[in-house]
Amino acid sequence: MFEEIKERYNRILFPGRFQPLHYGHIEVIKWMLNFGDEIIIAIGSAQKSHMVDNPFTAGERMVMIREALKEEGFDLSKFYIVPVPDIEYNSIWISYLESLLPPFDAVCSRNPLVIRLAKEERYDVLVPPFFLRSEYSGKKIRKKMLSGEKWESYVPPSVARIIKQISGIQRLIDSSLSDELE
Ligand code: NAP
């Protein structure tokens, strides 16, 4: 919420799965730069890929994010893009992030668990507004990919290009078929 934002931050942590990065995330990043000098984009669930909810590897997501930031005209020197595998213990997740990442002084998220964990460790939390949530949602974009609908306009062109290069739609379809077998 706006009232929680007290000052300008040195480095804001932005955790997400980015499956895939879409224009909603780009809008959140633009919004965050009003409040902080540098952004750490932590690619969460880095160990997951080849699943309907998590089709892309951490490395693929790193390339998508970097290429999209370049394409959208962001100054890359302001960004750290770091893959972070999940851990079993939510209670120590923030300490785990502190041990892996450059120091940060605020966390940006709309995810209730992330907000709860960050507040418990006394971090300021920036909750971005919804940016066209009806369209910019990873889940909806993956659904469109699976059902053969147009999805390209919801993601930066570089992200669409990389997904096509790695045959990402076919991977998603294959992953959904193996999910059905379970
Ligand atoms: P996400 O779906 O990629 O989204 C990243 C952030 O951007 C979320 O706060 C999301 O809000 C926001 N966002 C997305 N689209 C938006 C839009 N159109 N307008 C405004 N905001 C938008 O990622 P996430 O699921 O929150 O990722 C959290 C990561 O942290 C996961 O990988 C999770 O596993 C990890 N984590 C791990 C642990 C652990 O290891 N124990 C504990 C906590 C979290 P919404 O939430 O509203 O979509």
Q: Figure out the total of helices.
A: 7
Helicity range of the residues? 40-55%
CATH class: Alpha Beta
SSE pattern: EHEHEHEHEHHH
Strand order of the largest sheet: 3-2-1-4-5
The CATH homologous superfamily corresponds to HUPs
User: What is the level-2 CATH architecture name?
Assistant: 3-Layer(aba) Sandwich
Description of the molecule:
By secondary structure, the protein is an alpha/beta fold. It has a single domain (9-175), classed as HUPs (Rossmann fold, 3-Layer(aba) Sandwich). The chain is built from 7 helices and 5 strands; from the N terminus they run βαβαβαβαβααα. Strands 3-2-1-4-5 form a 5-stranded parallel beta sheet, with helices on both faces. Helix 2 runs antiparallel to helix 6 (157-165). NADP nicotinamide-adenine-dinucleotide phosphate binds next to strand 1, helix 1 and helix 4. NADP nicotinamide-adenine-dinucleotide phosphate is lined by residues 15-18, 24-25, 28, 44-45, 86-87, 90, 93, 109-111, 113-114, 128, 130-133, 136-138.
List its salient traits:
about 180 residues, alpha/beta, Rossmann fold, 5-stranded parallel β-sheet, 7 helices, 5 strands, globular, binds NADP nicotinamide-adenine-dinucleotide phosphate, pyridine nucleotide biosynthesis, nucleotidyltransferase
